[in-house]
Amino acid sequence: MSRLLLRSLLAVLLCCVWISPMASAAGFERLSALEEQGFLIGAEARMLDSGEVLGEIAPDRELSPASVSKLYMAAAALDRWGPQHRFTTRLVTTGQLTADGVVSGDLIFMGDGDPALVSEDLWRLVQQLRQQGVTRIDGELKINQWRYGPVQCITTDRCEARHRGTNAYSALLSVAGVDYGSWCLAVRPGPSLGKPARVASCSSGVLLTRLDNQVQTARADGRTRLDAERFTDGQGDRMVLKGTIAMGDGPRYVYRASSDPAEQTASTLASLLEQAGIAVTGGARVVRTQPSPASTELAAVQGKPLQELLQRTLNYSNNFMADVLALDLVGTPRATLPQAGDTLEAFARTIPGHGPLTLESGSGLTTGNRTTARGVTALLEHMYQRSALFPSFIAGLQSPANGTMRFLRRGSDTFQEHVMLKTGTLNQPFLVRATGGYFRTQNGRWGVFSVLVNGTASTPYLAWRQVLEPLADDLETMILNH
């Protein structure tokens, strides 16, 4: 063999040795062990100053990100409105307010898509009416959801929530929703041992649904265990409570998605008007008609700044808030979740180097959402470069050391104190464990990472610790070495 040929072969071998780590699981050696169990993984970690890739596993593989989808919604919302934007909820009328305190016409609730509108805000609206001397509405109370609502469900949980509710995360959607689309009941011990618990509405004290209270008062040293379901029939929503509550305990709060958030707002606002001594002669109902431009504003309340809304949405991974904000981004009336997804996709197309993306919603409650690890890191880098928006964006991510989700508190101090992240979790129709965020090295350099793990019909259940512990080890190595 000639000396020239030997040199050529040696050059090829050296080249292969050099590039092979970049084509394999370099940097994610521990996390990559999940591939042996049949899980599909997409991962990427890189420095923001130099672009150096510290680790990758199939970074262009399209996978479900679950609630990591909320990062797209947060970025698009900040890009559209800015951190200080506030949604304004109003009470208007097409009639007149007379000198003796009578509104001669309908009282119309105009929701602005505030995802954190709560009963206290409705009470503030009612108090503004009282301050003007309003004593009677000579017409109907109309809850207007012209912009969107009811929104067609696209996931099993939300479709089932129209008839039965066993949780709050699958709350249905409306521009006129209140209390995150869920009923809240406050449960307190009864007057003595064995007596039924005392149950009231969190919003007004007055029960706004039918109640089947099967909760018994237990001894002070007994256990408090509550189970709740919401059922819906021709008469509306009915809450069924079971279990025990210990003497001296409480109040304990139970949240269950309502069957119709706009109807929930109608019941809540009607109750608050009644408690304030303002009579409504025509009853209350939900409408979807285009509002009249000739209406007169009687009361208005501004919501919290967008940066605070996003912090709550991301920290608690609130599906109701995420999808309401995504629907707010749609510029046309009668908005749908697919339209909201299209709006988010259009925003992502402006991000350099993002690549393919499919979003059916802003919450990630459906596995139909698809992105890549490289796409997520491109999004994170894009927001890092937006100096006016980045502080509000990263504030919604969690530090494992002190975030709201306690299951994140794993790994070394280096991982817990040098990383900010968002997670995504789904179990049906297939398992998803996803995360993405920022890290800072010992020298103060910034990096981004994303890990998308999807199961299949044949993969076993995967606990979060089985993802977080190897990921924490891999990221710690990157942080310490750079």
Low-confidence stretches: 1-24
Number of strands: 21
**Biggest beta-sheet profile:** 5 strands, antiparallel
- Number of DSSP helices? 12
What Rg do the Cα atoms give? 26 Å
Q: Report mean pLDDT, rounded to a whole number.
A: 93
Shape: globular
Q: Percent range for helical residues?
A: 25-40%
Biggest sheet: strand arrangement: 2-1-21-20-19
SSE-based structural type: alpha+beta
Work out the strand percent.
25-35%
What is this structure's SSE topology?
Layout: H1 3-23, E1 40-47, E2 53-57, H2 70-81, E3 88-93, E4 96-97, E5 102-104, E6 107-110, H3 119-131, E7 136-137, E8 141-144, H4 156-161, E9 164-165, E10 182-188, E11 198-201, E12 210-218, E13 225-233, E14 236-246, E15 252-257, H5 261-275, E16 279-280, E17 284-287, E18 296-302, H6 306-315, H7 319-328, H8 337-348, H9 373-384, H10 390-394, H11 413-418, E19 419-426, E20 432-440, E21 446-454, H12 465-481
Parallel strand pairs: 5-7, 6-8, 7-16, 8-17, 12-14
Antiparallel strand pairs: 1-2, 1-21, 3-6, 3-18, 4-5, 9-13, 10-11, 10-15, 13-14, 19-20, 20-21
Helix pairs in contact: 2-6, 2-7, 3-5, 7-8
Task: Summarize the structure in words.
- Helix content is 29%, strand content 25%.
- It contains twelve helices and 21 strands.
- Helix 2 (70-81) packs across helix 7.
- The two termini are 43 Å apart.
- It is globular and about 75 Å long.
- Residues 1-24 have low confidence and may be disordered.
- The chain is α+β, with helices and mostly antiparallel strands and 482 residues long.
- Strand 19 (419-426) and strand 20 form a beta hairpin.
- Strands 2-1-21-20-19 form a five-stranded antiparallel β-sheet, sandwiched between helices. It has a five-stranded mixed β-sheet with strand order 17-8-6-3-18, with helices on one face. A four-stranded mixed β-sheet has the order 4-5-7-16, with helices on one face.
